[in-house]
Amino acid sequence: QVQLVESGGGLVQAGGSLRLSCAASGRPFSNYGMGWFRQGPGKEREFVASINWSSGSTNYADFVKGRFTISRDNAKNTLYLQMNSLKPEDTAVYYCNARNAIIPANYWGQGTQVTVSS
After folding, report:
1. Is it the case that residue 28 has pLDDT exceeding 90?
2. CB under 8 Å to 103, separation ≥6 — which residues?
3. Ramachandran region of residue 15, left (φ > 0), alpha (ψ -120 to 50) or beta?
4. For all residues of the chain together, what is the average pLDDT?
């Protein structure tokens, strides 16, 4: 069974940084796209960033370009999201996602809360 477990959320002041982690287990993820989504108060879940587990190619939402960096550690089966220059509008629950379009398969973590104070 696939498990995605996020950690690293918390409360930070505007302009600060946080690094989120997502520990993935249950199967090889070499054919998966991994990503981060977020859901702010009263908002729909939205895409933040993604990475191809094998190639390492990345994609970002426009509102995080230049501030957030997605990466992965293949040996640890862990996905990361480095968040810098945080803004109050970044306040949300951040979710880790693993997706395979071929199988198909789509998995979510339980989410981690990020709160940015002004």
Report:
1. no
2. none
3. left
4. 95
Is 102 a residue whose pLDDT tops 90?
no
The closest of 79, 48, 43, 84 to 63, measured between CA atoms, is: 48
Work out the number of other CB atoms within 10 angstroms of the CB of residue 1.
Answer: 6
**Are the CB atoms for 78 and 23 separated by under 8 Å?**
yes
Q: Which of 64, 110, 104 is nearest to 83 (CA)?
A: 64
Is-contact 8 18, C-beta < 8 A? Answer: yes
- pLDDT tens-digit series, residues 49-70: 999 988 999 999 999 999 999 9
% pLDDT > 70, the chain: 100
What are phi and psi for residue 90, nearest 5 degrees? -80, -5
How far apart are the two ends of the chain, measured CA to CA in Å? Answer: 40
The DSSP bridge partners found for residue 21 are 7, 80
